[in-house]
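G., the chain you wanted modeled:
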Amino acid sequence: MKEYYLAAGLFLYMGMFSCALKAAEHEKKMDSSGSATEEAIVVWKDYSMGRILFNDKAPQSEGSRIYHQLIPDAEAYIRRQACDVLHTLYHGPSDHITPVHHLYYTLKDTDGISAKSGDNGEISIFYSTRHIEKSFKNNDKSKVYFETRGILLHELTHAYQLKPQGIGSYEKNRVFWAFIEGMADAVRIANGGFHGETDRPKGGNYMDGYRYAGYFFVWLRDNKDPEFLRKFNRSTLEVIPWSFDGAIKYVLGKQYDVDELWNEYQVALGDKKSCD
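Predicted structure as tokens:
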């Protein structure tokens, strides 16, 4: 994996945080993908992505100990991943971007893995120390680090991504839900947060969201339009009421159909035969 070197610099704190560039040496050794790319840093270094407030509510847990050992500066680490998320979703700071004023990131001794909540610029994300402990079963620090970064990319996407309009809500509309979760995993995939083909689910449908949709979206980026993820995110501002097929036509052209593209994707990846 290509290692990216971070430029050093001083950044003013004005009540809002921007991208921090300096990575801890042990993080570089653990996984070079944990650092924002040079291009993302250049584009987003002056963008105010919100004040990040880290809170460890389970300091006595084993998961907390492991987390702090791997990531001693959580706020700087989160800002670096936010840089890559923003760069994947948007062309630059002048785009119409979902604002985040405060991002509360909390370690909790609880079941589950991680989740984002909140809106209108006030965002909360929790990460389970129990999940960290489960990921550390074989004393594999690199596995925990990889998992932690991947999950963070997914949740930060929820913080900064645009939302479909005119079709209800996440809780009540499956199309809305599939887009939101599919894009979050697409950003994770695009930034090396999954293990490539090993983690790609076979079959299913883009309406199944998460990795089913995420790998499909990244395939469209790689095979149809290198700007697909950014344009697909922006389609929520232009296609109202939003739909998958309407967004596909907005991004790629009226000659394209989402179901036909899904079939092409399935055949190309060997999940089904072309005669099916």
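The first strand starts at residue 51 and ends at 56.

Shout if anything looks off.
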